[in-house]
């Protein structure tokens, strides 16, 4: 309850001695051993997140990998296959009005990132043909009279492209404005569209996938619709949900009443998985019927011959909450389902039948409505193997009687061996194994061995007792520390006060000379008058700026 009621703060974080990173302190509300397999991938941001980051956690919520070097935002972190190899892919860039302009990166298992394609953050799906599906936004001018706005106006058009990753060539491109009317939207235009600085987003594309026939499945958040686009002609083959729904709902409306949805994915056997935000249904109660605003994952069965749809399973938010934006649904290899709650900082794993297995919160539930911490999507991988080309990091303070070790991104470590060596006249140290300790979370504590030794290092061992890497050699009686932001701040602060002290002494000496010359009064009045004049000028300028701003 301490966590969930916010008594640990808006964004509780962990800290380590061997690493400067501060990942979230996860709260596992419900747990089942089935959730222990693989790694969870999040893209953290929010008003309480000072350094937005991509992050990988194990089944217990312990840190595996984290990177804060990209930004200002990181989105859509997941593992994808390209030309037979596994890559971490993510988007990095700036976000504006619900979409963004940035770059997608592909990271190999040694965690070296290669820049790939520039586009919007919503989707970067690598296909079985080693092409990429990307979403994009473009400003166009069109008639807004159907929305009650006189004359022409500015609109964000939604696009997607299929691109050759190797060459960057566009294979296929599609625009929403070529196929949909502006007034198909559910999103109120408000004051948007009157100028180029604030175009109206009528469609809002937020996911695209390919079905078994090679056609494209597109999610439109603001049309409350899922659209099948022909790969041959670009024409609309069918529409699920929204004002122009083509399907008979065999589930009394429960398969077509999704609203403001995200992350629609193609599943085997003509099924679709959908993250239904369900928020703001009350705006359009006459069309959507159910006034519930509880977010859920959906599995629907399509019959495109008879044009029917049926809700097979739903995965309802365990706290009966509605997440107004973002979110994801992933069907795992085990058949379980992982739901990321987007704006509400958490994720839940379900059995295929909809029963809850595990529920994890990134930040306190009491703060969910405020967006302090959230992740655009949440993904799970069981295939990723991290083999960083760095050394393990060690913190050693000899007086503690123990060492702390971690290795960012490494997934194969099962134990650590602390080795010691004595100083010799030769150039090469002879290390001997002294202590073997099982890996325990991200940072493992190892008790220092008794006896005389001058140097130590810590070696990473895998499940077959193979040596993966070793830390740098550390002088046993001196130890080592990790330079953190707080440490650097302390150094800068100390230097500042030393400079102030030196300047004060210098000024004092100069003042004594002036006093001896009988000029104290002249200098004092001159200096004080200059300070007063400057302060009056500064205050007047600030007040004038305030009037201009508030006016």
How would you characterize the overall build of this protein?
This protein is mainly beta and 551 residues long. Among the domains are: 393-475, Immunoglobulin-like; 494-550. It has three helices and 35 strands. It has a five-stranded antiparallel sheet with strand order 1-26-25-24-23, with no helix packed on it. A hairpin with a 4-residue loop joins strand 9 and strand 10 (131-143). The protein is elongated, with a radius of gyration of 29 Å. Mean pLDDT is 87; it is low at 481-495 and 513-551.
Shape verdict: elongated
Tell me the major beta sheet. 5 strands, antiparallel
Structural class: mainly beta
CATH topology of the domain at 393-475: Immunoglobulin-like
Question: Separation of termini?
Answer: 46 Å
The gyration radius over C-alpha positions equals: 29 Å
DSSP strand count: 35
Mind telling me the CATH superfamily name of the domain at 393-475?
Immunoglobulins
Which terms would index this structure?
mainly beta, Immunoglobulin-like, five-stranded antiparallel β-sheet, five-stranded mixed β-sheet
Short synopsis of the structure:
Pfam families: Arylsulfotran_2. With 551 residues, the chain is mainly beta.
Give the arrangement of secondary structure elements:
Layout: E1 27-30, E2 39-45, E3 53-57, E4 63-67, E5 73-82, E6 85-96, E7 99-107, E8 113-119, E9 124-126, E10 131-143, E11 152-164, E12 170-175, E13 200-201, E14 205-210, E15 216-220, E16 225-229, E17 236-240, E18 248-249, E19 262-267, E20 271-276, H1 285-288, E21 296-303, E22 308-316, E23 328-331, E24 337-340, E25 346-350, E26 356-361, E27 374-381, E28 393-396, E29 402-406, E30 415-421, E31 432-438, E32 444-447, E33 455-461, E34 467-470, E35 474-475, H2 485-516, H3 520-550
Parallel strand pairs: 11-13, 18-22
Antiparallel strand pairs: 1-26, 2-3, 2-27, 3-4, 5-6, 6-7, 7-8, 9-10, 10-11, 11-12, 14-15, 15-16, 16-17, 19-20, 20-21, 21-22, 23-24, 24-25, 25-26, 28-29, 29-32, 30-31, 30-33, 33-34, 33-35
Organism: Aureobasidium pullulans (Black yeast)
Protein name: Arylsulfotransferase
Transmembrane segments: 487-507
